[in-house]
Amino acid sequence: MSRTPPTVFIVDDDADVRRALARLLCAARYVTRSFGSASEFLAHHDPTVPGCLLLDLAMPDRSGLDVQSTLADSDCHRPIIFLSGHGSIAESVIAMRAGAVNFLTKPVENEELLGAVEEAIRMDEEQRRATGLKQIVQERIATLTPREREVLAHVVEGRMNKQIAGDLGTVLKTIKVHRARVMHKMRARSLAQLVKLIAASGVVLNRPECTSELPAHDVKYSGPMGPTGGSHSIGSGVAHW
């Protein structure tokens, strides 16, 4: 399965600036898409496409800060590099506090711009990997029964089977059965791997109603890391889920 290459989205009302940025980035082997206004960009933006955003601060229709706010409101966290010919310190502070990767002043040096783009692309890749892992873990947890979710929460806390049995008011044999089913459904071959998987995903398990935000019905993941196999690095070594 081919991976969608990252795209550098350029939003600037100055056509000469857009062309110059696109030439520089294409020479550095980046894929680019250019827009002459904030409204045009927002109308055609696809948040599923990996990449970053080069965003002019001052534009006639909507400011760069407006675009940043709109993306955040839609739960899109695409890394943004602001470009400004006359931005104030207050505006740069607002942009950075809202999560901008960088705030550059025009005219910007080529090396500085390319360095900022490289950093933004890296951040986007890391964020997308983390989001994908969290989704996979949530889907696997959703296949657990309520009692198995309780056992999972206890297990990742490092509690022994006898302790879990006492906490849940059941017998040791039952806990062993639940624990084995949890390991199978979470596709973990060891306790250490299970703990690393949960920690890397950022999923929070709460007792006694752990992962209460997840649906109770079964959800089967059939993507590239689904039942047919696949691997992903978690900490040290490779975990096959």
What does this structure look like?
This protein has helices at residues 15-27, 38-44, 64-73, 89-97, 110-141, 146-156, 161-168, 172-185, 191-201, and strands spanning 7-11, 31-35, 51-56, 80-84, 102-105, 231-233, 238-240. The strands form two sheets. The protein has a five-stranded parallel β-sheet, sandwiched between helices. By secondary structure, the chain is an alpha/beta fold. The chain contains nine helices and seven strands. Helix 1 links the parallel strand 1 and strand 2 (31-35). The model is unreliable at 209-241 (pLDDT under 50).
Summarize the structure.
Helix content is 48%, strand content 13%.
List strands and helices in order, with pairings.
Layout: E1 7-11, H1 15-27, E2 31-35, H2 38-44, E3 51-56, H3 64-73, E4 80-84, H4 89-97, E5 102-105, H5 110-141, H6 146-156, H7 161-168, H8 172-185, H9 191-201, E6 231-233, E7 238-240
Parallel strand pairs: 1-2, 1-3, 3-4, 4-5
Antiparallel strand pairs: 6-7
Features:
241 residues; alpha/beta; 5-stranded parallel β-sheet
N→C terminal distance: 19 Å
Count of individual helical segments: 9
Compressed to H and E, one letter per element, the order equals EHEHEHEHEHHHHHEE
Mean pLDDT over the full residue set: 84
* Proportion of residues in β-strands: 5-15%
Provide the spatial order of strands within the biggest beta sheet: 2-1-3-4-5
**Unreliable residue runs:** 209-241
Shape: elongated
- SS elements, strand count: 7
- Approximately how much helix is present in the residues? 40-55%
Largest sheet entry: 5 strands, parallel
Radius of gyration: 23 Å
Structural category: alpha/beta
